[in-house]
């Protein structure tokens, strides 16, 4: 029986077997093509084309500064370049003028389109280097980049670094270096190579400019975030204050609903001879009132915060009013603030919402005095109009006697925001602001009987801050 010949254990690898130099070259070529593709994309995709440098600056002089600098470089480098190329290097006058114009005039374009200006100036510099290889005056002089070309190119790098992203700047820098390395192959005899100088200078300028631009961008974003955060905090404070007011008014509305329920339930017993239809109607009114009261309690459960649920006490206490102002003033006096209280001679019985709003406005105003003007003399007055239509709440404090640390760092509400919301709730007006002597004034006009449409918007701002 014939057996096939065995294959040697260490047979040399033939074509297509094992790992030879072919796959490595293929990978290197693929990597090179990918790098060139990325380089072309970065060099061909400008950032914000047409937008001038410093275009978003408020100061008009700073907005004009890039144009003035570019114009100064252009008008100074153009005649200098013509003179250097024509007289020092011995280049034809017309050709020297054309090359110098191509190397300097695009600096004006660099204000709004620096990457496009780089393409023109870089191409003009390369063409100028090739032309200089055929003139006699290049021996002993700078090549491939004359001094004027280096100055213009570095100025262009400043504009590029302030506009383009980092990958584009790296692509520009590498292209500059590759052009310098290739120039070594055709360096004229006796010339002084300047491509290393330009390569280093352009890299330093690009790095410094990019660092400054990125730092400025980070600062602007931080300012924007702080502005957004401040607006969000103000909105959250407003919503929290509205929720707190809604929780407080629950007791007022619940009292009215309870009165309606009791009156409707007891009507058949208090009023004799009611028809059966009327008794059923009163029963329906009582049932509806009880359902509304239950819905309000469920709503209060949604509005009540977890912290309030844990503390428990304040939500269940009776809501304060004007009658409790003496006790409030007494506590403020104990905190070290001399307060004078003036109340109407005749008892005032405003609507519960107005009564609560008046008390809270005085409470917030006194809390602000404790926080911001400890020790300042303060006068609180509550008066009614002659026609009995409105209630005036006035809190005025003088300047603090001497600078000192605040006596209290936390308040019961959110200052002027809470005051504005409470005044808006009952359809009143609020006037606040600093006084010439360094004090502060809070004046609220509240209708004793708020109209049904009392939630009219107030002006966007009150003078002063809490």
Explained architecture:
It catalyses: ATP + protein L-histidine = ADP + protein N-phospho-L-histidine. By secondary structure, the protein is an alpha/beta fold. The chain folds into three domains: 162 residues, no CATH class; 77 residues; 128 residues, Histidine kinase-like ATPase, C-terminal domain (Heat Shock Protein 90), CATH 3.30.565.10. The N and C termini lie far apart (109 Å).
Features:
466 residues, phosphoprotein, single chain, two-stranded parallel sheet, 3 domains, HATPase_dom, HATPase_C_sf, disordered C terminus, EC 2.7.13.3, alpha/beta, transmembrane, elongated, Heat Shock Protein 90, five-stranded mixed β-sheet
Summarize the structure.
Residues 360-450 form the Histidine kinase domain. It catalyses: ATP + protein L-histidine = ADP + protein N-phospho-L-histidine. By secondary structure, this protein is an alpha/beta fold.
Please write out the topology.
Elements: H1 21-44, H2 60-88, H3 93-104, H4 106-109, H5 114-132, E1 142-143, H6 147-161, H7 166-183, E2 192-193, H8 195-270, H9 276-303, H10 306-311, H11 313-316, H12 325-334, E3 339-342, H13 352-372, E4 378-384, E5 390-397, H14 416-425, E6 429-434, E7 440-447
Parallel strand pairs: 1-2, 3-4
Antiparallel strand pairs: 4-5, 5-7, 6-7
């Amino acid at each position: 029986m014939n057996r096939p010949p065995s294959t040697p254990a260490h047979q040399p690898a033939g074509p297509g077997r094992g790992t030879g130099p072919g796959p490595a070259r293929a990978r290197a070529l693929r990597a090179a093509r990918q790098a060139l593709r990325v380089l072309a994309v970065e060099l061909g995709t400008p950032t914000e084309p047409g937008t001038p440098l410093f275009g978003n600056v408020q100061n008009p002089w700073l907005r004009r500064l890039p144009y003035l600098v570019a114009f100064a470089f252009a008008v100074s480098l153009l005649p200098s370049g013509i003179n250097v190329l024509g007289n020092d290097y011995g280049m034809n006058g017309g050709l020297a003028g054309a090359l110098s114009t191509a190397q300097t005039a695009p600096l004006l374009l660099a204000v709004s389109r620096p990457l496009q200006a780089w393409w023109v100036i870089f191409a003009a510099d390369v063409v100028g280097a090739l032309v200089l290889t055929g003139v006699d005056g290049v021996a002993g002089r700078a090549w491939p980049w004359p001094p004027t070309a280096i100055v213009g190119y570095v100025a262009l790098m400043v504009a590029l670094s302030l506009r383009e992203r980092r990958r584009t700047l790296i692509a520009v820098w590498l292209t500059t270096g590759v052009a310098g390395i290739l120039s070594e192959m055709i360096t004229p005899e006796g010339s002084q190579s300047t491509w290393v100088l330009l390569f280093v200078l352009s890299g330093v300028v690009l790095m410094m400019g990019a660092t400054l631009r990125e730092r400025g961008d980070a600062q602007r974003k931080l300012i924007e975030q702080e502005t957004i955060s401040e607006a969000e905090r103000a909105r959250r404070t407003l919503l929290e204050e509205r929720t707190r007011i809604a929780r407080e008014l629950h007791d007022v509305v619940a009292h009215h609903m309870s009165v309606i329920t009791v009156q409707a339930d007891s009507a058949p017993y208090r009023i004799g001879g009611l028809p059966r239809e009327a008794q059923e109607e009163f029963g329906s009114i009582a049932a509806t009132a009880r359902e509304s009261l239950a819905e309000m309690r469920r709503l209060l459960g949604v509005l009540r915060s977890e912290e309030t649920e844990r503390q428990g006490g304040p939500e269940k206490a009776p809501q304060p009013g004007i009658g409790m102002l003496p006790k409030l003033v007494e506590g403020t006096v104990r905190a070290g603030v001399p307060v004078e209280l003036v109340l109407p001679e005749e008892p005032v019985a405003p609507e519960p919402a107005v009564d609560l709003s008046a008390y809270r406005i005085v409470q917030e105003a006194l809390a602000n005095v404790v926080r911001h003007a400890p020790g300042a003399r303060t006068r609180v007055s509550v008066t009614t109009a002659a026609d009995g239509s409105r209630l005036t709440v006035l809190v005025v404090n003088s300047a603090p006697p001497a600078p000192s640390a605040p006596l209290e760092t936390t308040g019961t509400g959110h200052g002027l925001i809470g005051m504005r919301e409470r005044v808006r709730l009952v359809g009143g007006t609020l006037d606040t602001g600093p006084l010439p002597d360094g004090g502060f004034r809070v004046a609220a006009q509240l209708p004793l009987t708020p109209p049904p449409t009392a939630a009219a918007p107030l002006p966007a701002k009150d003078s002063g801050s809490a």
